[in-house]
Amino acid sequence: MATTASITRKLVNNNQRINHAADIFGIHFPMRVEPFIYAITGKLAHEYNGGYWEFYALSNGGFYMAPGSDTRFHVACENGFEGSMSADALGITVCLYAYSHLSFGNPSAFTEICAQQYHWLREYMLGHAEAGDILQAVD
Known about the structure:
Blueprint: E1 9-11, H1 17-25, H2 28-44, E2 53-58, E3 63-67, E4 72-76, E5 82-86, H3 87-102, H4 109-125, H5 131-138
Antiparallel strand pairs: 1-2, 2-3, 4-5
Helix pairs in contact: 2-3, 3-4, 3-5
């Protein structure tokens, strides 16, 4: 029987944040990915009003960012999901939304990167304590 190693995350050091995101997304991170993540967050969690975000590197190659907060956010999605999420779960949710959305369009290296990031993050998310809520939110 094959076993799957659990996927771990590592906080990206402050002095590596820009380089880490650029290594994955290039110029698309500050121009498309990051602003889109913030916009989605504002739509799903109305009480979100900005703040510092943590960056995480996943052991499977994935990346996500989450508000650096202990706050729980009330999340309401167009698909009917409504519930409370930790900042970490909200970050995973909005990154999954963004990666999915940005993976569509004309095939390019960027859309392929977004698709791969979606799958890597989803794989990590399945082991998250709030996986059930995240799955309902992104369904």
